[in-house]
Amino acid sequence: AQSVTQLDSHVSVSEGTPVLLRCNYSSSYSPSLFWYVQHPNKGLQLLLKYTSAATLVKGINGFEAEFKKSETSFHLTKPSAHMSDAAEYFCVVRALNFGNEKLTFGTGTRLTIIP
Amino acid sequence: EADIYQTPRYLVIGTGKKITLECSQTMGHDKMYWYQQDPGMELHLIHYSYGVNSTEKGDLSSESTVSRIRTEHFPLTLESARPSHTSQYLCASSGGGRYYQETQYFGPGTRLLVL
Q1: pLDDT band, residue A111 (cuts 50/70/90)
Q2: Alpha-helix residue ranges (DSSP H) falling in A10-68
Q3: How many CB pairs under 8 A join A and B?
Q4: Among A37, A46, A73, A94, which residue's beta carbon has the most beta carbons within 10 A?
């Protein structure tokens, strides 16, 4: 079984300040972890993914995430927020057992950027 | 940029009507998925397919049905729409690599409103 907990349903930061979106996971197998972003009226776009290689993963638009097995966390960060970062962010886990292609989504974190 | 398309983008329809949501991808992916997303909520897998003539039900029970006659096409059908079917439906596909390296790419979604 696998699950994802996004610890904050809503995060507000000022433009130019750091962003931290928190995600904890549980998985019976070695997980793959993803962050997706969803802008209003748009589909989901992959920001970054972890698949058992480097624990610090860099994604698009200046985002990065660090896989911490001891803390079962995969928090998303960005050094300086931009107005265009305002969106819904989903942390996603997939167990690494063969044939299991199913993703488990977190409930999402809505990021608001204050001008 | 992922090449996965969904039509229609928005659909308002009366109770009892039969509807088909279209999903097509031009990436040659063997795996395709349908997710349901209620406003402000996480995504739930309702159907998936590992290839032509392969379809499985997902984690969330759904009255919809799917078919996979061609690799690139994965339509979802509701025989008799009801207001409880009002939601956003997202199609995704993956393939072309080792299973643990694959990424699901999402279409823009169809927002369905059943009156």
Answers
A1: very high
A2: none
A3: 51
A4: A94
What is the spatial distance between Cα A74 and Cα A96, in angstroms, rounded to a whole number?
16
The pLDDT tens digits of the residues spanning A25-78 come to: 988 777 889 999 998 877 889 999 998 778 899 999 999 999 999 999 999 999
Question: All domains of chain A, ordered by start, with CATH?
Answer: 2-114 (2.60.40.10)
Residues of B in contact with A106 (CB under 8 A): 42
Shortest CA distance to A21 belongs to which of A69, A73, A56? A73
Smallest CA–CA distance from A30 into chain B, residue: B100
Q: What are φ and ψ of residue B35, in 5° steps? A: -120, 150
* B-chain residues near A32 (CB < 8 A): 100
Where are chain B's structural domains? 4-114
Lowest mean pLDDT among A101-105, B76-80, B85-89: A101-105
- Is there a contact between A103 and B104 if contact means CB atoms under 8 Å apart? yes
Residue B1 has pLDDT above 80, yes or no: no
Strands A56-58 and A109-114 come out as unpaired
What average pLDDT does chain A have? Answer: 90
pLDDT of B17 above 90: yes
CATH class of B4-114: mainly beta
From chain B, the residues in CB contact with A59 under 8 A are none
* Numbered residues of chain B with Cβ closer than 8 Å to any chain A Cβ: 6, 31, 33, 40-45, 48, 50, 58-59, 90, 92, 94, 99-109
**10 Å Cβ neighbour count for B105?**
21
